[in-house]
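Batch manifest, entry 17 of 40.
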Amino acid sequence: MIQKTSNSMQGGMTRRRFIKTAGIAAAGAITVPAMVRPALAQGDDVIRIGFIGPRSGPLSPFGEGDAVLIEQFNMHMAEGVQAGEKRYGIQLVLGDTQSDPVRASQVAKDMINAEQIDMMLTSSTPETVNPVADTCEAAGVPCLSTTAPWESFYFGRGAKPGEPSPFRWTYHFCFGVGNFATLYADQWSKVETNKKVGVLLPNDADGNAIRGLLLPELENAGYTIVDPGPYENGAADFTPQINLYRQEGCEIFNTFPFPPDFPVFWRQAAQKGFAQQAKIVQLAKAGLFASELEALGGLGYGLHAGAYWHKDFPFASPSTGLDCASLAAGYEAKVGKQWNQQVGANASLLDAAVAALAASGNPKDKAALADALSTLKADTAVGTVDFTTGPVPNCATTGLVGVQWVKAEEGPWEFALNIVSNADHPAVPLTGEMTPYTLQG
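Output type: structure tokens
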């Protein structure tokens, strides 16, 4: 496998400058492994795969593990992939969105036009996935993505309930509203509350999907929803929302914010008394990474979340040759930070991509590759990804577990992440009991 960073996508940046900007810890991950050069020099066919993500900017924690992951992928997949009667090398071409949806679209266009890629991979929030997928759909390039609720990908891009899919080239696997509904019904039952839920949902693809689809599910499950309405990402003052939650006596708080917004909100919630009132503080999209919790200090102990990957998942990554515990340990050893969920999620994206290449028979044929994606069933680091079971065309679902951030009792890290609910992903074992949130700082 070889990896290339497209200069056209980096605004003329040098290779050395890109490595620094993208936060890549292992320079070796950018180079061509020596064992691959002879095969490529002999003229073997090479599949060029774009891999776009937020590797700088406020969403950059989602990309922190990419260099280590790609290095392992390159080593394990050095002999390429067998598809039909031929074996193909794989070349990864990286692009950084800088956490900007407009740039995500432009990076995808530049990659398609200048790099002549055969396939696109992308992940990490609708702000990344949707513009890249839209660009690929328009250009007729097969695209596979993950880590954004499937409803945000499907309905957020113009598909209509009950109508045929408008997409031919773009495919996505991830959790969805149904997964959250199953998860929350189980996880929230583990702490006694008055079942009043204060929700904080932004005016974006995630927030709009959750408001329209998840909130009715929660009401049907017997929860009273207190929704102050959408807010704009980057808001600095959450006083009106906090006052409403306090007045209504909300003991559950649920939010899907742009990650930098949650610390602003939660510090204000502590100052104004809501953090002392809440018994369950359920995060999604924010609170995925230990670095976010470390920045909160004592305010972070006891926060609840959902996890789409965990080091204790009982699965393995075929494209890297590692089980989940080894993926996490490798990241920690190389980067010097605590493992994060996106390491396994992006490993699963590579896993599914390799499976699709093999299943296509001819990965140089874009139509054949898109057809392979439409019926793909593959084992990955997050479990089985199965496009044959829906829930809609172009989408497959993966499970969630409920987790709680707690103060680590031992080891080098400040926080531990306990698995406290597995109703939505019963193959994953529990590792701790859920407790109420208690303000500690």
